[in-house]
């Protein structure tokens, strides 16, 4: 079984597919922490008698219901972001920000970037993503000396998440092509 290492998922627990609707710190389901497909998978399972309790940060199917989504296959337009939409758009912003950072930033620019990244790691709405990020940033502090090293650092942070989620590792020598210059002719 896949272990994305998110709350409610643990390879040491039962092998059954696991409800993965994540609760916010207010105790309510957190859309920005949960993939839309997991909301809808949960809806489809709602009527089944199976009710697996996992950790305190995820809900069992008997207590979770997002009725208007029903068995929808795609996140309806104008819905609040799920964890994947939020993640994708946020990475777009973060990599683009790094791609347009100065080659020779002033001390003030470097301080502002550091301050932004630290603040970001506290305010990102997917709380467990933010927690992972803060841990990673302790292990591997942001590099803000210039555009190149910041882009590389961001790429490595993203690859850390990719790895945890079982996604493909991105070739960091291609960040400029992906986020600034576009494909070579
Ligand atoms: P994304 O991973 O969103 O990537 C978007 C695009 O970026 C890709 O199509 C690719 O072209 C490019 N790309 C991919 N990797 C790199 C790289 N290393 N460097 C440069 N470009 C790259 N989700 C969770 O389930 N658990 C988490 O703990 C979690 N933590 C997150 C932490 C942060 C800070 C952010 C911003 C998001 C986090 N997410 C987390 C969301 C997750 O990373 C993905 O954004 C989401 O699953 C959607 O994935 P995707 O396959 O559409 O592509």
Q: In words, what does this structure look like?
A:
It is found in: Mitochondrion intermembrane space. Residues 79-179 form the ERV/ALR sulfhydryl oxidase domain. This is Sulfhydryl oxidase. Belongs to the glycosyltransferase 15 family. Residues 50-63 have a biased composition (Low complexity). The structure is a single chain. This protein is mainly alpha-helical. It has 2 domains: 1-79, no CATH class; 83-181, Four Helix Bundle (Hemerythrin (Met), subunit A). It has 6 helices and no strands. The chain has helices spanning 36-45, 83-99, 107-123, 127-139, 147-165, 175-181. Bound molecules: flavin-adenine dinucleotide. The site of flavin-adenine dinucleotide (FAD) has 24 residues, from helix 2, helix 4, helix 5 and helix 6.
Keywords:
Four Helix Bundle (Hemerythrin (Met), subunit A); 2 domains; 185 residues; Sulfhydryl oxidase; 45% helix; globular; binds flavin-adenine dinucleotide; mainly alpha
Q: What's a concise summary of this model?
A:
By secondary structure, the chain is an all-alpha fold. The protein has helices at 36-45, 83-99, 107-123, 127-139, 147-165, 175-181.
